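step: validate -> pass
step: tokenize input -> pass
step: predict -> running
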Amino acid sequence: MVISSLRFNEQEVLGQRGGVEAYREHGSTFGIPLLYPWANRLGGWGYTFGSKEVVLDPENPLIHIDAGSGNPIHGVLAASPHWTVVSSTSEAISAELDWAAVPEYMAVFPFAHKLTMDISLGEVALGVKLTVTPTGEDHVPISFGFHPYLSIPGSERNSWLLAMPVDGGMHNGRLEDSQFDTPFNELTGRPPTFHISDPRIRLSVALTAGYRVAQVYSPRGTDFICFEPMTAPIDALRTGRGLRAVGPGTSFTAEFSLGVV
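step: predict -> pass
step: emit ->
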């Protein structure tokens, strides 16, 4: 359930990096991957939620390790084979994953639940919705996100115009040689919407429901920028700061859209 390609006027606007093969073989992210059950980095190899204390195994092949910190990053669902397609048309797809049915997933995140991902393609926007529904007696902590790699084809990164709904207003300017690996925990706008553009194309990521914070990622010298919708701040599973949970008998839905004009 990685979104591998999005084209506008026959031009690719998602960063491909290593593409499908690298994603499948060693989890190298590209396109728009889901970061689940945690987005970005954890601050260590364990966390506690409610009465459950979880110790993660650095040797677990499902867990990706951040080269800089040596800690877990981006969750465990890269190239997961456990999704089941519920419905599919030329403009929409819905798929489910029964988390509790996969023992290796329960070992790193021991909370029974079902994931439902709904992706829809409109005339000028792609909608991405993820719903978490508990299937057991435990509350399920919510700390996931997505990682859209955006790229404007046929133009230099230095010329891209950037607009971000942060710090109580819009931050505007050229990307130029700036680099970002930056959390933004105070967003503005209804919905908060990030933009990158050149004179021909404008890409926007709108956090339409459920996402309270975002990470912006664009290392110097790359040809992409990521506006990452996140349901909780980085390391919320460990710190508890900004962490929400969904209880039995209810569900939690988060949604964002990627617009291209």
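step: describe -> The mean pLDDT is 95.
step: cleanup -> pass
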